[in-house]
């Protein structure tokens, strides 16, 4: 289990190092069908999202995960949940199309992350709820969130993490340029892209499937202990 967690951590670090090392593309000179990295500011499209727990409005990507800690005789969060570890009980992830205003060129492009598009998100999630089973006075908002999903609390030690990309956030997007008349778009590549080997850092290649979206704007959210 520890080795699997370490491998996942190393893989994420390797991909982020790859994303950060790629230079930003100037959309003015990008060719149709070219794989690019674009960094800029997010603007919502026609159908913005709201984050699941905190209800942050005008988001283009949201992720909410509920974890439970399993002690010696406590319940499992999932069939593979081992004792004395945190296990994922439920997860929600949503993405919609959005616009990015490119820092390099000032051009605005439509990023096609909605409608079931393949997306590899690297969006930092923060703990927004830490539930101690010894505390009987649970947050009303958290109890509402559990009820809406038919989930029980019943003395479990839980942790809720949430991440999102909201309007005004700075993101980096990696995908394929598609020019359609007057519309400039960034769409998922037809095949996964390899990050390549990083021998100096002992990172092996990772396949990046679909659009890669990187955002760090949610790392300073407050934690609510309950």
TrEMBL record:
Top-level taxon of the source organism: Eukaryota
Alphabetized InterPro entries for the sequence: At1g16860-like
Protein name: Uncharacterized protein
